[in-house]
Amino acid sequence: MTRILPADQPSIAQAAALIRAGEVVAFPTETVYGLGANALDAAAVAKIFAAKGRPSNDPLIVHIADLDQLALIAKHVPDSAAVLIEAFWAGPLTLILPRTVAIPSLVSAGLPTVGVRMPAHPVAQALIRAAGVPIAAPSANRFAHTSPTTAQHVYDDLNGTIPLILDGGATHYGVESTILDLSGTPRLLRPGGITAEELRFWLPDLQIVERHSDDAQPMIAPGMLLKHYAPTVPLTLFEGEPSAVRQALRDRAEALLAAGQRVGLLLTAEDIAEIDLPTARIVSLGSQSDLPTIARHLYSALRSFEQPPLVDHLLARSFPAQGLGLAIRDRLMRAAAGHMEIV
Ligand code: TXA
Ligand code: MG
Prior knowledge:
Blueprint: E1 3-6, H1 9-20, E2 25-27, E3 34-38, H2 42-52, E4 61-63, H3 70-73, H4 79-88, E5 93-98, E6 113-117, H5 122-131, E7 135-136, H6 151-158, E8 164-167, E9 178-181, E10 187-190, H7 196-200, E11 207-208, E12 235-239, H8 242-258, E13 263-267, H9 269-274, E14 281-284, H10 291-304, E15 313-317, H11 325-335, E16 340-342
Parallel strand pairs: 1-8, 2-8, 4-6, 5-9, 10-11, 12-15, 12-16, 13-14, 13-15
Antiparallel strand pairs: 2-3, 3-7, 4-7, 5-6, 9-10
This protein binds threonylcarbamoyladenylate (TXA) and magnesium ion (MG).
């Protein structure tokens, strides 16, 4: 039995007591919900992998609430990291740094490095402070499913496998943190809430790691499987000029509908004004010009197609790989397991 409690002071205290006792708890962050355990306790961390069905070669991110916790986790903080910490913490930026022996190797899948971030969400911060330990936490979804942006999403995936979900409402960014590897030439391992453009101001030589090949090296970029964040309905993504994309979406939807298939469309408000398909199930992500809103709605929208009335095929548009669009496009590519058609 999994309880969902509003994230007030008494329930945060309860959650902190569970963390100290070696249990796992789901909690809101500003990106997505996390499934947390005491990052210094290997047995507690093992429960995260078990609850999610996550393979042990996929490392976790350690969450801290105060900068003095960093010395416990990272052996060395390069100058480039200090500048970024000053600029972007607390917030959706994970830094890959050399790991100390205090962090069990299970946390970072045996790598010599560890991912660290300081979440901006007040509930996450309060929980880490009340627990008095850094909290290792992946997204609180079943492995390879879409990340949760509400407590209900967590419940849908993990009911019965964890004791408690702190409900702090829908998350703000809606996509996971940006992951930046500073162990050599700065590399963006995962685009997220902090954009590559923002990072380039401090890191002009930033490299962006291509995450979309199925043979992504497991040791360099663990957890970067192509099929990740996936909904249970097959998704095809269309990319190109807006009018060509709309034409392709319309044509494909009409062909599938004519063949007796049930079709879902994940569109922008601008698309919907131009695509009139009364028998398709259409969900809007918001206006094309408002990428933060699109990102915030993305995972809920994908999950909504798993609820009746079910569809056989999901068709969606891609987004330009700029600003937050890079993260939105990346997550859609993963949800589509690479099924992208350039039109
Ligand atoms: O926004 C977020 O980052 C959310 C919230 C809960 O904080 N967490 C999250 O965790 O997205 P998760 O487990 O879903 O993604 C963690 C990913 C791993 O799959 C891996 O790609 C990368 O972070 N990662 C973690 N530690 C790493 C390391 N030492 N080296 C390289 N990549 C690492
Ligand atoms: Mg995840």
